[in-house]
Amino acid sequence: MVPSIRSLIDHHRIASFLFVTYGFTWTIQAYLVVTGMEASWTLSILAGFGGFGPPVGAAVVVWASGGSLRSWFGQFLQWRIGVRWWLLALGLPFVILAAGSVLFVLVGGPVDLSSLPSPLIYLFVMVWGTIWGGGQEELGWRGFMLPLLQDRYRALVASLFVGAAWTLWHLPLLLNANTTHGGWPLSQQLLWGSTIFAGSILWTWMYNNTGSVLAVAVFHAGINSMGLYHPVDKAALVPDGVPDPWLNLLAEGTAAVVLVGLAIALVVVYGADRLANQEVPGPAVLKLE
Question: Cα–Cα distance between 33 and 175 in angstroms, integer?
């Protein structure tokens, strides 16, 4: 008997998730490339819509496998995690920014504090980033793929697998010259890739200790928004409208050092097995057998 599509998905959950996730996102990214759409709000919105590939992929597999869509999505509504973890989710991005900025200054990077945007913009960017600009991805990466992998692998190994899939998923952004990432030189793209793997460990740590995709999404949005408040002299960063490759690399590199260093510290303190002081989420959180 030819197996049904639902049966195939159920028996190949991770592969099916990645197939739908990549297919959704890369189709939209291909449209941006084929149409030659230049940098604009329209491109940003469409690229953001493409960021819903991971939750779409997760929803399809949870449904096809007979899991609970309510339990899966409920992780994004889980806000009862304690004050300590909310302080970490909201405050760590500022600590990371401060440490990276100090390192940037120490190696000779030029700064201009007068060019920093209003704090009110941060509130908008955080909300936008949580539901559209990156945070929504976490329903797929951490809210689905990570629990399935942690059923078979240590938290650190599972994080690296997710990091690899997450990095590859971004490939169209790196190849499209009209996106911010596509305008970076290869060295900066590689540095950025290292921060994705470090971020994957940080997000696992947050998720495994809270069970909250919402906390991870907020943490993710906070890290993404820190670029707005980096004190680098913007005029020196993009002189005459042309990015300075060395200065951009320096800013990216100092931030990467802090993120990677923090990821290593968390592995040392919490251990590679769970990256947490408690049992970690597995397929049961999705009501999957």
Answer: 9
Per-residue pLDDT of the chain (289 residues), as tens digits, is: 456 899 999 999 999 999 999 999 999 999 998 998 887 888 888 989 999 999 999 999 999 999 999 999 999 999 999 999 999 999 999 999 999 999 999 999 999 988 888 888 988 999 999 999 999 999 999 999 999 999 999 999 999 999 999 999 999 988 887 787 777 788 888 899 999 999 999 999 999 999 999 999 999 999 999 888 999 988 888 887 777 888 989 999 999 999 999 999 999 999 999 999 999 999 999 998 7
Cα separation, 217 vs 92, in Å, equals 13
| Positive or negative: CA dihedral 225, 226, 229, 234 | negative
Please give the span between the terminal C-alpha atoms of the chain, in angstroms, as a whole number.
23
How far apart CA 70 and CA 58 sit, in angstroms, is: 12
Place of tokens 């004050």: 83
Give this prediction's pTM: 0.95
